[in-house]
Specification:
Number of strands: 12
Strand content: 25-35%
Helix content: 25-40%
Strand order of the largest sheet: 1-4-5-6-7-10-11-12
Number of helices: 11
Distance between the termini: 10 Å
Largest sheet: 8 strands, parallel, barrel
Order of helices and strands: EEEHEHHEHEHHEEEHEHEHEHH
Length: 245
């Protein structure tokens, strides 16, 4: 084993589902999507390529506020045997717990956690280590409701709050660079890693292996990669190897 400074840093493929198909959006805007086929096939493809976990998103759920792609997501959960996390449209503790009991490993809460932080504690009480809070930041402020509305709080303030409530990890997306394949902003990630004791998973803007390495160097625990993998900018194997060197 070579010494690995990014001990256990993980590259997590994103399977974003809209209308039952895998898609990638640019900056979260509907109408910008490119489609990439069947969610189960995509999930299987990433697992075959060595993914040790998967990041699932119900995009219709994220926009409509309720889960629209339950069948497609369930099909993925039934097929794969690696840990999975799911975000998009999970608005209640009951809904989250139902998913966790059906085999999901972690729920990702965004708007729900911002509007009602106690939901994090409520789910964590019966299912510890299962809540990931998604913090999307634009110009240093957390944004909610599909990135249209500022929450009046910085990512660091929010992360500290959710850590106290039992969140297992923070999923941090820098909206300024999301989906544009233009590279990552490492400074906000590094600041968040330094301010919190729970793992930070970075997301947004990864275009190159250099971006993956740069995020590993911030001290983040993992990175979620979507467009770059689907577009073939690099393979999952290459990305994981780049940080395991």
């Amino acid at each position: 084993m070579s010494t690995n400074t990014h001990d256990g840093f993980e590259v997590i493929p994103a399977v974003d589902v809209q209308d039952g198909e895998v898609v990638q959006l640019v900056q979260g805007e509907r109408g910008t999507e490119k489609t990439y086929g069947d969610p189960v096939e995509a999930a299987q493809r990433w697992i075959d390529a060595g993914a040790s976990s998967l990041h699932l998103v119900d995009l219709d759920g994220a926009f409509e506020g309720e889960r629209q792609n339950a069948d497609a997501i369930d099909a993925v959960l039934e097929t794969v045997d690696v840990p999975t996390q799911l975000g998009g449209g999970i608005r209640t503790a009951e809904g989250a717990i139902d998913l966790l009991e059906r085999g999901l490993d972690r729920v990702i809460l965004g708007t729900a956690a911002v509007e009602n932080p106690d939901i994090v504690a409520e789910i964590s009480e019966t299912h510890p280590d299962s809540v990931v809070v998604s913090l999307d930041a634009k110009d240093g402020e957390v944004v909610v409701e599909g990135w249209t509305e500022g929450a009046g709080i910085t990512p660091i303030e929010a992360a500290e709050r959710y850590e106290d409530l039992g969140a297992a990890a923070i999923l941090f997306t820098n909206v300024d660079v999301e989906g544009q394949l233009e590279g990552v902003a490492t400074e906000p990630v590094r600041e968040l890693v330094e301010a919190t004791d729970i793992p930070v998973v970075a997301s947004g803007g990864v275009a190159t292996l250099e971006d993956v390495r740069a995020l590993a160097e911030t001290g983040a625990a993992a990175v979620v990669v979507g467009s770059a993998l689907y577009e073939g900018n690099f393979t999952l194997e290459d990305a994981q190897a780049a940080v395991d060197e």
